[in-house]
Amino acid sequence: MTAVEPTDAITFPAARGGGCPFAPPPAYQEALEQRPITRISLWDGSRAWLVTRHEDVRAVMGDRRFSADARNSGFPFLSNGRRELAVENPSFIRMDDPEHARFRRMLTGDFIIKRVEALRPEVQRIVDGFLDSMTAHHPPADLVAEFALPVPSLVICMLLGVPYQDHAYFQERSRILLHNHSPADQVRRARDELFDYLEELAERKEREPDDRIISRLVARGDLTRAEVAGMSLLLLVAGHETTANMTALSTLALLRDPAQLARLREDPALIKGAVEELLRFLSIVQSGTVRVAVETAEVGGTTIEAGEGVVCMLSTANRDDSVFAAPDRLDVGRDARRHVAFGFGVHQCLGQPLARLELQIALETLIRRLPGLRLAVPVEQVRFRTDTVVYGVEELPVAW
Amino acid sequence: MRVSVDPDRCCSSGQCVAAVPEVFDQSEDDGVVLLIQSRPPAELWFAVRTAAGICPARAISVQEP
Q: How is chain B split among helix, strand and coil, in percent rounded to 5?
């Protein structure tokens, strides 16, 4: 395949279309259909490749010739904030093996299926608690502020050993980190403040240890305080932003599709598969995932030179009709487990068993306890988060 | 069917355990894959193929005659 002319490059990120709010931007969909590996032009004027097909996304993310380490030249930065986070004190999400595996394996034991499943009663209690508070007052309520965000936020605080009463402090700052248009100095300040907060917390755990993740990382003795803070920051941000946005968007997607909602209501056993399908259908990591070729490699018939950046578009891979029949339809009964909503390769989401557990319990409970759940505003008034790493809604006013 | 796993490649996603708990387990320490049985009965073959297909680290190999 010959290189496309620079004028053909898609400006990244592309805008979503005016149709279904859950569909990927039309420019990416068109790429998937017509030129599945294509050139994009990034915010800072640099160029990279956009990879859109399921098979190609899995090939890139499963291939060590594509590095996640932003210290390699040519790494594509999707915003100021991402550059700030990736270059100075990077967490293991921006490292390659074996360095990455060393840090990741310090945490994988906390997210094994059995251990996460054992959290079910506790997560159910948390879900019921926030739903009790929300329904204690008259509708409407903002489902994001009163349910979708506090549930995963409290759960990850509990696992890490972070005081939940500080949630406003880290939620405000993590939103700055994940917003595409946050100025560099603002991102740096938010990152530094979060680092300071978590380093202080780590220091406190040295004096007053507990059995939670941060304390156990401190007790290992082979990590610097900055390394503990960096790992904690990654878990804290990834642990609540993603699940919160998935919970709210899933609720909206089901409310907009009463037939699918009715199926779930009639057969609650569908919930596990429904969560996989919602992960596929919504693919909330709208920025895609980024890599840089450290060796020249061929992907799907296109040669990617060493030093060229690649953006893997998870949302289009999850709507690739060679893998998912009628991909634009939400079907809670399909087997969607081949989706790449959690990424692919050795960096695939560490917390995925926890995310699944939280989503299954939150959505099942919401549907069961609030049979009259409905939007409290016309859908046109719902504001979507388009300029962020993670897609979502600003608020979701609901009644019941 | 003969199943084998490569613990060095495994990244502890847990997807194999979720798909076929009769065949795959995880180490308590770091979540790395443990093989419970390498010759699963035929009724589990479909699920084992699914597990191998979704493993993000491609750490599961399936040999079928």
A: 30, 20, 50
